[in-house]
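Technical note accompanying the year-one report. For the benefit of new consortium partners, we illustrate the data format agreed upon in the data management plan: each record pairs a sequence with a structure-token string. No post-processing was applied to the example shown here.
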Amino acid sequence: MMSSLTEILVRTNLKRIWRIAIVGGVLLAAVFFGQRASLRWLLLLSVAGGGVALLFVPQLGLLAVIAATLVVRYEISTGTEVYLNLATLLIPALFGLFLFEAMRKRELKWAASAVNRPLTLFLIAGLLSLVIGNMTWDPAVPRSGNFWLVQLAQWAIFAFAAFAFWLVANLRDCEVWLPRLTWFFLMLGGGLAILHVTPVAGQLLTPITTLTFIRAPFWLLLAALAAGQLLFNAELGRGQQLYLAAVLIAVFVYAFVLMEDRTSNWLGIAVVLGMLLWLRLRKLRRILMILGGLLLIVGLVSGALYEFAGGDEKWDESGASRLVLIERVVKVALRNPITGLGPASYRNYAGMEPLLYQRALWFHPLINSHNNYVDLFAHTGIVGLALFLWFAWALFRLGRRLGDYYQSGFVGGYVNGMTAAWVGSLVIMLLADWILPFVYNIGFPGFQASLLVWLFLGGLVALEQAAKSGPMQV
């Protein structure tokens, strides 16, 4: 009896001590940071507080990533032409915390999926290409002393995309947190998107939001998740339906009116919506194929699509020049077609000779292929490109299987929306390095947008795990 009473008193005193320590710590921190107020200290304090919160609710980290990709404009110099941002750095930090906690608790349960093998092998192929590229580097091709940092940064984009994918793939309590993540993105990203397309609010928001809002993957993902819920989730309330409709209107205004000359925006969204209609209207698929084919033929024959995309002016400005750039990148990558030149290396090789385009001669060209598949071939060769295509096919097949399993409700909307988003992503990769950016082109600033796509694609694997134990009700 006395021992139990003593234990109670000790626990009570410990709680009081902890409370006093926390209050004292907060007061000391307020004095310290109050005298040294700056954005850097504020971010450090936020990160420290967030780290404590993540120990109790690790899923909050994913909400922080979404918020950071949208509204935190803070870049960190690496001493090279590459600049990092907070959203990007959160991914390896969260992934490391996930592994540490799992090993500490001896509860490392990795989500088993057919998509893991090609994705893992792709990362290994990237490192192998980096090593071989440096071992076989042509001495006549100049490079800076810290160029290896740029190469690692390029590989890091591949790795961080995979980490983001796996973080959500291994999400705990996904039946609770996947809807929360989705609606958080739809409310924050969708709300800001609506404001962005309005003249006055859009101008006010531009300085405080990130470059995510001018990148095609963001609008593609927003369209996919919003339209997926509208088409498949009959449990939505009237307010939710109206809000998602407003989000889609904002997407249409941005892609088809304000940014009509940017093909990646409207083409990706058109592919997403077409794919969603294909998945939803199963009995009308033949009719949809015929109508789609007729519209495409009419558009091509009449030149309507060509003119909508910018016509001859846009072709001379961007289309034809990109073919010249692609030709140069493929030419230098054929030095080692098996494993490529190594991550980020092709620019050094491609800039060795002047580049002629029409009547212009570029003596010292800084070349980007503006094509994600050509980039991957140059970075990692046939091996890396083949592994990525294997992963792409495996992920598409997973989405289709889940779409047959989940055909309604939130999960039905999510699965079919992300399957459509993946197809749209694979299409816009033909037009720029949107999904796995080239570090010298779209780079880490633009990676914030594709990072969101990778996060939500991981939800397909999480739902695959849930399906193994029976249909998930959300």
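Partners are asked to follow this layout when depositing records. The radius of gyration is 25 Å.
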